[in-house]
Amino acid sequence: MSVFVVINPKAGGGRVKKRWPRLAKRLAEHIGPFASAETAAPGHASILTREAIRTGADLVISVGGDGTLNEVVNGFCDADGKMSTHVSLAVVSLGTGSDFVRSLSTGMDSIDRIVSGATRRIDLGRVIYFDDDGNQKSRLFANIGSFGVSGQIDRIVNTTHSRFLPRKARFLAATIGALAAFRSQRIGMMVDDDPAVTAPIVLVAVANGRYFGGGMQIAPDAEFDDGLFDIVTLQHTSKLALLRNLLLVYSGGHRDHPAISIRRGRRIRVEPLDGQSEPVLLDLDGEAPGRLPATYEILPQALALRC
Ligand SMILES: Nc1ncnc2c1ncn2[C@@H]1O[C@H](COP(=O)(O)OP(=O)(O)OP(=O)(O)O)[C@@H](O)[C@H]1O
Q: Which residue numbers delimit the DAGKc domain (predicted)?
């Protein structure tokens, strides 16, 4: 078996540098020698992955956080958008949020997951959207894509690097700040072939996994392999209600709140409604790649995951 490991040395606020050498030794003891490379910049993990697959890797291991994983997953797709379905992915999660692995909830240590050899096929999401320069882009995601206040929160979290607050606390602080300043945004949304609905929203999560935001269980019933997104909509409600109920989202207890609706679907088309001065910003596995309009599509069982 040919194994290639993609390592983001910046992930986890130094955790990768501290913990990976010991984990690498353990991995080598179990699976033998493997090739590896460190990422040199944002986006590099996709390039490394694509090249490793082109030159014969059977298993690619992502070492880093959710952002690194997202880039590695995108590297499974060639320039023509074709997925490499014969290659497996494994995750050594050393990020600060690690929401993908939390959603997997295997209860196993990452190296044990890899050496166990068990593989599960999971769905991926693909989103077509516009970047901040107005160029149309396409990107895969393994965990959760969302838009609304979450896009603003990502931009706050990813630009304020406090060495003193863990990501979960930074996310909570950014969420409180962003919610306090946020004004609902009107969107038009069409799920599968249903008639389009328009609504003022605070947030919509298009979920393959369950957790985002460093431990917020936004889609408590989502399954990685059911061929469906769980689409969680938080409609306009008062700021006081938002802030008062915010902590419910960590346990999934927001599910029954009257401002929340959850449904399932395979394809979502969504656009901002005219007359809005502020763009509706996207969040994709914790990164902020652009804005609406966007189309989300599920790719059933597209990825073989060691878990
Ligand atoms: N050499 C590098 N220098 C700077 N940034 C990099 C480098 N390599 C990768 N990156 C970027 O680092 C960012 C953060 O990585 P990642 O999300 O994996 O870690 P994290 O934020 O600690 O974890 P999580 O998303 O789970 O909280 C990603 O956007 C990635 O593009």
A: 1-131
Query: Best substitution site from 5, 10, 141 to test ligand 1's pocket, by max atoms within 8 Å of Cβ?
Result: 10
**175 Cβ below 6 A of ligand 1:** no
Our answer on whether the CB atom of 97 is closer than 6 Å to any ligand 1 atom is yes
Mean pLDDT taken over the chain: 92
- What is the rounded CA–CA span in Å between residue 116 and residue 307? 8
Tell me if 61 sits within 8 A of 90, measured CB to CB.
yes
* Tens-digit pLDDT profile for residues 133-169: 999 999 999 999 999 999 999 888 878 766 567 767 8
Measured from the Cα of 39, ligand 1's closest atom is 8
Residue 276's pLDDT band, with cuts at 50, 70 and 90, is low
In angstroms, rounded to a whole number, what is the distance separating the alpha carbons of residues 151 and 175? 10
Residue (of 32, 82, 33) closest to 53 by Cα position: 82
Burial class, 270, CB count within 10 angstroms (exposed 0-12 / middle 13-18 / buried 19+): buried
Q: How far is CA 211 from the centre of its chain?
A: 9
Structure confidence at residue 162 (pLDDT) = 65
For ligand 1, say whether the CB of 74 is within 6 Å of any of its atoms.
no
Sorted by where each starts, the structural domains of the chain and their CATH numbers stand as 3-117 (3.40.50.10330), 126-299 (2.60.200.40)
Whether residue 95 has its Cβ less than 6 Å from ligand 1: yes
Residue 127 · residue 138 · CB < 8 Å:
yes
Task: Locate the ligand 1 atom nearest the alpha carbon of residue 95 and give its number.
Answer: 23
Rounded distance from Cα 133 to ligand 1 centre (Å): 22
pLDDT bucket at 130, cuts 50 / 70 / 90: very high
